């Protein structure tokens, strides 16, 4: 399978929410390189440094700093602009932040999505809308079984619950308004994403990079926990493939999982951290349990439907994903240009390398 087709994306008017974040910055660079005309809608970056700033994303796309919790601001930002495709990634994405700030998280993730979908009802040229939720939307009894798209939604912590609720908001808007207009609206449930340029709070790779810079051991709360680790390029390639399919085939599933390369064993937080600290020459990680944590110990998703429906499958296993991630951070810290590094890794991915 080759990368996204420039013949499809070139000239497409794409609304990308969350463009100032880690995944959103990578998506901005990639879509701009494919020839799409991208308008970004998001809050200002919440980290310093940020990939958005380092890669000069605001010079590649139209960047609108708008709070999705403000319905009138969203509607004003979209007024007078026409879009072919929408990729909605803006969210409050951190589990521990959601536990500390549950109301704000529900406002951003649930009502922010509702405000966007309401504003999009005025768009007359829309071909498809894809809303990114999370692998954590499922009611997780911690059995170790991989979740598939037909499993029950749920969430015992505010972040998971906000994403499950977002799924219901999307489905209700689709059935009430967009289906009748012939505009498919769907969700994508991605795994835990890693890649160069993630400087977020409470993210494993970012924590490893910060600890390595100080030559201190990174602290892990749950080294035994398993997650569906996935490189950002695999995850975005899945989103782009699903969005393109929605625009051309009304039978495309309206919810899809995107996870790691099939055939690999589950990788624990500790195993991933070991790969990371070894790649950066950092001290071994240290375990400090958090007895108050509500995070799931076991999480796995089945991405078989994406493989069958879209002929899409992730390419990069966990060791390769970690190697690419740490190579990006090592080279950027040594003075190489962040945008050039992103473009280099995108080109290699498109070329099947």
What does this structure look like?
This protein is of the alpha/beta class. The chain has a single domain, classed as Rossmann fold. Helix content is 42%, strand content 14%. The chain has helices at 6-9, 22-33, 51-54, 71-78, 95-100, 102-120, 158-178, 204-214, 232-248, 269-280, 304-310, 318-333, 338-350, and strands spanning 13-17, 37-42, 62-65, 85-88, 128-132, 185-190, 192-194, 219-220, 226-227, 229-231, 255-258, 267-268, 286-287. The strands form four sheets. A seven-stranded parallel beta sheet has the order 3-2-1-4-5-6-11, sandwiched between helices. The protein has a two-stranded parallel sheet with strand order 7-10. Helix 7 links the parallel strand 5 and strand 6. Helix 8 packs parallel to helix 10. The model has no long low-confidence stretch (mean pLDDT 94).
Characteristics of this structure?
353 residues, alpha/beta, Rossmann fold, 7-stranded parallel sheet, 13 helices, 14% strand
């Amino acid at each position: 399978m080759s990368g996204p087709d420039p013949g499809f994306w070139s000239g497409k008017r794409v609304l990308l929410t969350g463009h100032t974040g880690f995944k959103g910055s990578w998506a901005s660079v990639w879509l701009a390189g494919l020839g799409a005309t991208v308008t970004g809608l998001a809050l200002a970056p919440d980290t310093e440094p940020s990939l958005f700033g380092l890669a000069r994303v605001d010079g590649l796309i139209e960047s609108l700093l708008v709070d999705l919790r403000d319905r009138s601001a969203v509607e004003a930002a979209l007024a007078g602009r026409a879009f072919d495709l929408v990729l909605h990634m803006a969210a409050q994405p951190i589990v521990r932040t959601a536990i500390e700030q549950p109301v704000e998280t529900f406002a951003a993730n649930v009502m922010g999505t509702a405000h966007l979908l309401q504003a999009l009802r005025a768009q007359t040229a829309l071909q498809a809308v894809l809303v990114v939720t999370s692998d954590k939307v499922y009611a997780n009894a911690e059995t170790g079984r991989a979740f598939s798209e037909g499993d029950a939604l749920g969430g015992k912590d505010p972040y998971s619950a906000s994403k499950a609720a977002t799924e219901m908001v999307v489905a209700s808007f689709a059935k009430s308004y967009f289906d009748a207009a012939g505009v498919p609206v769907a969700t994508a449930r991605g795994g835990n994403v890693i890649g160069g340029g993630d400087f977020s709070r409470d993210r494993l790779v970012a924590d490893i990079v910060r600890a390595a810079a100080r030559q201190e051991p990174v602290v892990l709360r749950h080294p035994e926990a398993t997650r569906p680790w996935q490189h950002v390029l695999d995850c975005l390639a899945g989103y782009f493939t699903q969005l393109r399919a929605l625009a051309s085939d009304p039978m495309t599933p309206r919810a899809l999982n995107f996870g790691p390369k099939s055939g690999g064993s589950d990788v624990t937080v500790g195993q991933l951290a070991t790969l990371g600290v070894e790649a950066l020459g950092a001290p071994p990680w240290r375990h400090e349990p958090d007895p108050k944590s509500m995070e799931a110990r076991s999480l796995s998703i089945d991405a078989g439907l994406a493989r069958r429906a879209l002929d899409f499958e992730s390419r990069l296993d966990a060791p390769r994903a970690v190697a690419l991630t740490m190579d990006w951070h090592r080279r950027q810290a040594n003075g190489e240009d962040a945008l050039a590094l992103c473009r280099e890794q995108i080109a290699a991915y498109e070329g099947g390398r």
